[in-house]
Design brief:
Layout: H1 3-6, H2 9-15, H3 25-39, E1 44-47, H4 55-60, E2 65-69, H5 72-79, E3 86-88, E4 100-105, H6 116-129, E5 130-141, E6 154-160, E7 163-170, E8 175-183, E9 189-197, H7 201-210, E10 214-219, E11 233-239
Parallel strand pairs: 1-2, 1-4, 2-3, 4-5
Antiparallel strand pairs: 5-11, 6-7, 7-8, 8-9, 10-11
Helix pairs in contact: 2-5
Length: about 240
Amino acid sequence: MRQEDLWDVETADRYDTPGRGVFAPEVVEPVVTRLASLAEGGRVLEFAIGTGRVAVPLAARGISVTGIELSRPMLAKLAEKAAIPVVVGDMATATAPGRYSLVYLVYNTIGNLLTQDEQVACFRNAARHLDPGGRFVIELMVPELRRLPPGQDAVVFGAEPGYLGVDTYDTVRQHLVSHHFTFGEGRQARLGRCPQRYIWPAELDLMGRLAGFELESRHADWAGAEFTAKSPSHVSVYRLPR
């Protein structure tokens, strides 16, 4: 399935949960604070801006924000909140006008590009948009292959009343599909799926080098916690030479 088909009207409605989940202030505020600091007063560009979870509060701080987004239903949600300029297109190829001090890509979204070539192209697209010395920030999970039972290719990542989440892995292609099952008291369940290509931190660093970046910093979260072998995700900051 094409990415533009995955992020349809129903998905946009379910994803956009103001004040709750990944939209909760305690989740969003550390992201916005760190990005505002890294922007150093310059213009910023968000790849896969979605419904504006990060861009809207960032713009509210007086920062000039532009976006690139493939999903028109997600953009319809964004337009209800703020007038942020957006280019409709793929984050690996679309071009936004002007140059920026910061490009950012949050919440594992680079994994929506399903080939290594597309992911490298995303880095190169970020570099094309940046001023000399500009930064590219990526938030990304660490692949959880250690959780896979021997000889199996699936793991439950979430289980609660009315919901079951299962990841299935294709370790040859570095693909995983997150399956989201929602259900009530009856016999019927609803399934949503999200395919991704997972990336190891060292592979991500090499992608950056191919695009002319150097790794400036890596932390376990937006507040700057130390990244260790046990960290489930990371915030990596790449920088172009001046």
